[in-house]
Amino acid sequence: MNTYQAIVLAIIEGLTEFLPISSTGHLIIASTIMNINNDSFTKVFEVNIQFGAILAVLVVYWKNFISSKDFYFKLFTAFLPVAIIGFALNKYIDRLLGSIFTVGISLLVGGIVLIFIDKAFKNTTKNNEITYKTAVNIGLFQCIAMIPGVSRSAATIIGGQTQGLSRKEAAEFSFFLAVPTMLAASSYKLLKDYKEINFDNLTTLLIGNVIAFIVAIIAIKFFIDFLTKYGFKFFGYYRILLGIIILAFFKY
Fold it and tell me: Taking the model in full, what pTM does it have?
């Protein structure tokens, strides 16, 4: 992976991590198109540029992260399901990560679900308190996103909507939940494969995180405004179109 390829992947990570279109799926697609070798460092890079995206959430929503202990307890409660299930199924998940076919199917099905959710819950605008039960249920939805192409953001936003949250509330809680989830995944990958990082590729990793951070801040602000005005349907249409293209034209 050269510097140009790393920059492209970092832009894709920052742009797609918080949109309901699957960052993992888009990284796999981009890596396939650019013929990036699926070596150990590439895998480390694709996971650890999430640190930049995590920092973007902390910067944009810093007031929420100093609000109360209850905020952290609910985040931890929502994080537990994916922590337990993800750890148990980790080796099986790794086998799926390189499957472009899985990504295509997930994008297609997820797009249909997003359009349905957009219509079913379009009138849910009332502010609702996020209870511990709500947090657990959203956390269970997040587990579905372990399938490449599903999108962690899409799964948690859909989970939030089914619990009576408004679009904005569901999206923002999805952002908050990304912090412990992505931090755990990135840290685990870093501890597991830190030997793959050396002086030569450390600069590449740092550049990737900086770019992902900047792009993620822009994407977060854009998404909330767009979501409030137009809902999820356009993301659903995009997912369906991209899923069809992948299934029709990619070799797997």
Answer: 0.87
